[in-house]
Amino acid sequence: MSLTVRSFLNLLKATPVTSTTVRVVCGNESADLDSVASAISYAYFKFIENSKDPQPFIPIINIPREDLKLRRDIVHVLKDIDINEDLLFFIDDMKKWKQENRNIEAVLVDHNEVVNEAKKYVTKVIGVIDHHKDMGLYKDASPRIIEVCGSCTSLVYSYFINDFLSQGYTPMHDATRLCLSAGLSDTTNFSHRVESPDLVCKELYAKFARDIDMENYTKVIKNAKNDITGFTARDLLRKDYKQFVFTNNNKSINNGQLIMGISSIVKSMDWLYEEFGGPGALKADCVKYRTEKNIDILTIMTSFVEKGKFQRQITMIPSDETKHIAEKMIAKVSDYLKLDDSNVNILNNKGDSEKLQQFQQQNIDASRKQVAPYLANAFEEL
Ligand SMILES: [Mn+2]
């Protein structure tokens, strides 16, 4: 069946939702290229598999519509396959269906636990394809594929294509390109965090999207992702943001619960100070964002190249009530993250002109995906 991804999305947009149960494919709330590509391609391939389905799966981008423009790599890749924002569905759509009293059944891609806002809307999880740590939930979901690899799209693409190929199907170029783009971005052209599912797909991509210069396209995507010209501090904080609820059995510790938001940013803290009016102004923006999100601790994880070296920093901006908790958590993850200055007590930032306490993270392999579970443990063990 030769249906483009664009035609598929057009068709979804043209088909009003009338059933009491809506089935969606939902990416994670950071809504990175991997999540978006996984959600769209899963829904698309599912439709290829059964185009007679009266109620096809709808791909959901797990952020408000207005936030898509902050993800320039995604906008770029989608434009390359002739898809604009109008053809997409967002968390706003799930909210609307919920208000219309519809059941929402979800396949989760690129995460394996429904959290935060999506949790208010999703009635039931019916499938999972993911490459994060298995939280052990939804044991009856089908499929339930959770496997370590560089890109979740590798799992989605191989899940469908291996099945289809036996039936003589050649995947459409745009669907392949979409998955490939996330694969390239997540593994830097299949050179980092590559596992066997990624390699399997790399071969398939080379076959079905022969014309794409992988090395060059990787650069194009990275450049678009790193293009943050014109962004405000708030834009940068929400561009790649995930929120976590950590728990502790001891209710005397912040009522046994800590809400942490982690913003991943591709510039150094010094760059942020410079760009956004100095330490006082940046700090004020961070506190404002923490208040807006109604969370206990805002954590900024920066990653950037300086002096030819890839570097990471971690910075916490805790509420007054959780400052002591933030300090203890930092101390607990210090060995794992190989933090410098970890016993310096500067979390009590006082003066407005003072910089935030930032830690150089020598363990540069640990991104948010690895760090968040460690922080969860650290809180649990306080
Ligand atoms: Mn992913």
Poorly predicted spans: none
Q: How many distinct helices?
A: 14
The H/E string reads HEHEHEHEHEEHHHHHEEHHEEHEH
Which secondary-structure class do the elements indicate?
Answer: alpha/beta
CATH architecture of the largest domain: Alpha-Beta Complex
User: How much helical structure, as a percent, in the residues?
Assistant: 40-55%
Bound molecules: manganese (II) ion
CATH fold assignment of the largest domain: inorganic pyrophosphatase (n-terminal core)
- Our Rg estimate from Cα atoms comes to 21 Å
Strand order of the largest sheet: 3-2-1-4-5-6
**Sheet with the most strands?**
6 strands, parallel
Strand percentage lies at 15-25%
The number of E-state strands comes to: 11
Summary of the model, kept short:
Residues 218-379 form the DHHA2 domain. This is Exopolyphosphatase. By secondary structure, the chain is of the alpha/beta class.
Tags for this model:
single chain, 382 residues, alpha/beta, inorganic pyrophosphatase (n-terminal core), Diaminopimelate Epimerase, Chain A, domain 1, 6-stranded parallel β-sheet, 5-stranded mixed β-sheet, 14 helices, 11 strands, 18% strand, globular, binds manganese (II) ion, hydrolase
